[in-house]
């Protein structure tokens, strides 16, 4: 949505249902229009979500989604490799290190999966 400036007495309208509506400027022609309008009545410019610039919150969620998507398979690969090496060198003292790495890999994969689902829900919830 376009950024709203502080409300001024002439920029607040009463809707028919009694709620307060704000006036915002059209990004194309600069005329004041209702914040719930989908099309500017003056110039016909479409104000749907697809044409509005992506805000910072949306970018942040999308970056987190990429990180979670990378964390899931990389954690699984780490767990598989470390557990395979730990099985080969278990009698030695450093076999424990690989077991810890395997557990960390599983934890990273589970965390990445949960984080990914939460981010998808947040993207759906905010309809981004």
Features:
2 domains, three-stranded antiparallel β-sheet, rod-shaped, single chain, 128 residues, 2 helices, mainly alpha
Structure description:
The protein is mostly helical and 128 residues long. It has two domains: 1-53, no CATH class; 56-125. It contains two helices and three strands, in the order E-E-E-H-H. A three-stranded antiparallel β-sheet has the order 1-2-3, with no helix packed on it. Strand 1 and strand 2 form a beta hairpin. Helix 1 (56-88) runs antiparallel to helix 2 (95-125). It is rod-shaped and about 80 Å long. Mean pLDDT is 75; it is low at 6-17. The chain crosses the membrane at residues 66-90, 96-125. Residues 25-47 form the Zinc-ribbon domain.
Helix and strand layout, with pairings?
Layout lengths: L11 E3 L5 E6 L6 E3 L21 H33 L6 H31 L3
Antiparallel strand pairs: 1-2, 2-3
Helix pairs in contact: 1-2
**Total DSSP E strands:** 3
Mean pLDDT: 75
Unreliable residue runs: 6-17
Please tell me what the overall shape is. rod-shaped
Strand content: 5-15%
Structural class: mainly alpha
Residue share in helix:
40-55%
- Count of helical regions: 2
Secondary-structure element string: EEEHH
Strand order of the largest sheet: 1-2-3
């Amino acid at each position: 949505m376009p950024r709203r400036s502080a409300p001024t007495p002439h920029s607040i309208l009463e809707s028919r249902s009694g709620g307060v509506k704000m006036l915002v400027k059209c990004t194309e022609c600069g005329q004041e229009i209702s914040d719930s309008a989908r099309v500017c009545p003056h110039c016909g410019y479409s104000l749907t979500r697809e044409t509005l610039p992506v805000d910072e919150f949306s970018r942040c969620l999308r970056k987190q989604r990429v990180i979670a998507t990378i964390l899931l398979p990389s954690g699984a690969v780490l767990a598989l490799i470390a557990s395979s090496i730990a099985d080969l060198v278990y009698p030695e003292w450093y076999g424990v290190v690989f077991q810890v790495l395997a557990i960390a890999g599983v934890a990273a994969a589970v965390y990445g999966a949960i984080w990914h689902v939460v981010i998808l829900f947040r993207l759906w919830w905010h309809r981004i």
